[in-house]
Amino acid sequence: MTAVDHPHCDEATRQALNAAGYCGEPCPPGGGSCTRRPGHDGDHVDYYYGRKKPTDTEGYRWPQL
Predict the structure, then answer these.
(1) d(CA 60, CA 28)
(2) Would you tell me which of 24, 41, 45, 52 could form a disulfide with 17, CB atoms 3.0–4.6 Å apart?
(3) How far apart (Å, rounded) are the C-alpha atoms in residues 64 and 22?
């Protein structure tokens, strides 16, 4: 799935996230996007959405395809 066909992230949103310093790759189940820097190595991580409790340091994590 690319940013263009993801229901929560169109190309303009992806470009805005990149400009803000985020990777922006949408999380496959939806509801978040990668908040690591653009061009990072390893898994995608959303440090805001998907946290189980407020003290968790990261939320959703998914592999880079």
Answers:
(1) 10
(2) 24
(3) 15
